[in-house]
Amino acid sequence: MALDGIRMPDGCYADGTWELKMHVTDLHRDVSLRVTGEIHVGGVMLKLAEKLDVKKDWSDHALWWEKKKTWLLKTHWTLDKYGIQADARLLFTPQHKLLRLQLPNMKHMKVKVNFSDRVFKAVSDICKTFSKSDKPCGDTFFICIYSSPGLYSKTMTPTYDSRDGSPLSPTTAWFGDSPLSEGNPSILAVSQPISSPDILAKLYKPQSLLDKAKINQGWMDSSRSLMEQDVKENEVLLLRFKYHSFFDLNPKYDAIRVNQLYEQAKWAILLEEIECTEEEMMMFAALQYHINKLSIMSSDNHMNNSEKEVDEVDAALSDLEITLEGGKTSNTLGDITSIPELADYVKVFKPKKLTLKGYKQYWCTFKDITISCYKSKEEAHGTPSLQMNLRGCEVTPDVNISAQKFNIKLLIPVADGMNEIWLRCDAEKQYAHWMAACRLASKGKTMADSSYNLEVHNILSFLKMQHMNPDPQFIAEPAVTNDINSECLVSPRYLKKYKNKQISARILEAHQNVAQMSLIEAKMRFIQAWQSLPEFGITHFLAKFQGGKRDELIGITYNRLIRMDANTGDAIKTWRFANMKQWNVNWEIKMVTVEFADEPSLAFICAEVDCKVVHEFIGGYIFLSTRAKDQNESLDEEMFYKLTRVRD
Fold first, then answer.
1. Angle between the 519-531 and 255-270 helix axes, to the nearest 10 degrees?
2. 3-state SS class at 534
3. Which of 218, 329, 475, 546 could form a disulfide with 146 if both were Cys (CB 3.0 to 4.6 A apart)?
4. Which pLDDT score is estimated for 169?
5. How far apart are CA 561 and CA 444, in angstroms?
6. Strands (DSSP E) along 9-155, which ranges?
7. DSSP state letter for 599
8. Across the beta sheet with 172-175, what order do the strands follow?
9. DSSP symbols for 344-358
10. Where does the Band 4.1 domain lie (predicted)?
């Protein structure tokens, strides 16, 4: 027994025990315990609590191994099984810690969240806290992104503060002095106008596609915990909708989600994270102005009357429900024995290098997913001069209402890239029908699909909101225009181009198209218009493609991958997820390889970003596409991890 206290060169004692060093974060105290490798983690924590001899509830505490960045959560495992030896230093620390989160509306709040849970689970708990329900957040859930230095302002002070010394509990958030779980989370459904243009000036604005790609470096790994990713207590993280695939967005039950989506869309437009035309900008500004007015007017009683209001506009909003495919199944089956067709004179243009030729008019027929072009209507039964199969193509609008320009840009996949074709329509109605048909055909769907009529209606509504109304009766008095605050409603480029009075006048004109909308309908229209922008839903990453000589961009959307020119943003090649067999990642060289059913495989190396981020975007969208359209369906965490985590 006399040898028990003799310490050997390896740090162990003669009796086989050794000293395990631990730091108790709550007490700022270092503690050592004599242990053996055969003791289980639960036994270590019990011995530690006894030695501390402090009356305290330690139930939320766990051991954290700093060197390995690992939580020791399997309390039945022994120290030997974890590989812990005498040189290890452990932290005995609470699992629930405070985070400062910046919401999509740019407001800050403090949330108590489990730092030992995987980010996917932690974010799900945060969403449940916000909604005060166990309903999953749909397929567009919140995910954290780092507030990287130089990208987002660090000078903004929290709008929502916390109460210190709060009791430990599951995920809890605070507004003011009241825990959100005990208070009124409906405050998250209220839009707050931007108070000063200085706020816009302080925030980072991407100047190029490369800047947009850099922002996407910060997405966190959903299959690892916050602690494993070096997140510290009270650190500021951004909370954003990561996947642009909105599942069963119902304004009657999802007021918080609708408002936060509206806010994310609003800031994306104001900070020029997504491009839009001048007419579209004035339309967005008019919707903002309308929403701000209604939010201020109803700040006292809107929450009490919101259900009544939603009931009144249910019919108007039925066509605005946004699902994975962007549409809603119609109650009318229609004629299922035939597929609708389009036939009309359309101007067609095939851009070629060193050519000045313009559009040429053809008699065009749109059958199934194919457009056939003939020199005249009389030749429509013969061989077409030009024929285009639109499956897998890129469809981009090019519209200017005031100039009566209604163009559709098509990039059609071919063996060596994409063929570019432009269609020019004569009027809004023709454009809406042909654009809707092109969008469906790109997904392999025909005009017999139940979403076709809804798509046409949405396009026409989007165009209608951009109309100007230069009627003298709508010219406001100068005193009335003072509340417009145009500097907070449009992006900086238009403030440089026009005077405030000019912008205010145009906003008032555009406002007449939306003035009769209710608050929730205006927000839904804003979200729908955001979705209609050509760049919507494309997440950019810098990549080097196999066989390529320079860096390019890989764009990821809910249904496809896009190879893009890094300078112009032009699509070089598109691959649909529906045609994908599998994808693999070589973690050592950061190469992603994607195999397809009927075309060559795609391979690219991720530049300036961990390929885990790209891998998770692909897997995440595949995960969302497998979900049934059932609002009561819970999120299948294990399936998400199977599709997105790093393979061991």
1. 50
2. coil
3. 218
4. 37
5. 16
6. 18-24, 29-35, 61-65, 70-71, 89-94, 96-102, 108-114, 142-146
7. S
8. 142-146, 236-241, 96-102, 108-114, 172-175, 178-179
9. EEEEEE---TT----
10. 93-541
Question: Contact 255/520 with Cβ under 8 angstroms?
Answer: yes
User: To the nearest 10°, the Cα dihedral for 251, 254, 258, 259?
Assistant: 110
Task: Provide the residue count of the chain.
Answer: 648
What mean pLDDT value characterizes the chain?
A: 82
- Contacts of residue 629, Cβ cutoff 8 Å, sequence gap at least 6: 247, 248, 323, 324
- What is the per-residue pLDDT across 47-83, written as a single tens digit (0 to 9) for each? 999 999 899 999 999 999 999 999 999 999 999 999 9
d(CA 22, CA 113): 23
Q: What distance in Å separates the CA atoms of residue 422 and residue 393, rounded to the nearest whole number? A: 12
Are the C-beta atoms of residues 122 and 171 closer than 8 Å to each other?
A: yes
Closest CA to 328 of 391, 241, 249, 433: 249
Question: Which has the minimum average pLDDT: 187-201, 526-540, 589-603?
Answer: 187-201
> Please, how many CA atoms are within 13 Å of residue 506, restricted to the half-sphere of its CB?
21
- Across residues 134-152, what is the average pLDDT? 47
Sign of CA dihedral 603, 606, 611, 614: negative
Query: Residue 22: phi, psi to the nearest 5?
Result: -135, 150
**Adjacency order of strands within the sheet including 29-35:** 29-35, 18-24, 89-94, 61-65, 70-71
Answer for the pair 375, 448: CB distance below 8 angstroms, yes or no. Answer: no
CB-CB contact of 585 with 611 (8 Å): yes
pLDDT class for 170, splitting at 50, 70, 90? very low
Cβ atoms of residues 362 and 371 within 8 Å: no
Alpha-carbon torsion (399, 402, 403, 404), positive or negative = positive
* Tens-place pLDDT, residues 249-277: 788 878 888 999 999 999 999 999 999 99
Structure tokens at 179: 């825990």
Quote the CA–CA distance of 575 and 597 in Å, as a whole number.
11
When pLDDT is averaged across residues 609-633 and rounded to a whole number, the result is 82
DSSP tag of 600: -
Q: Report CA 468 to chain centroid distance, whole Å.
A: 31
CB 364 within 8 A of CB 371: yes
Count of other CB atoms within 10 angstroms of residue 119: 22
Span of 228-242, 300-314, 487-501 with lowest mean pLDDT: 300-314
- Which residue has better confidence, 435 or 312? 435
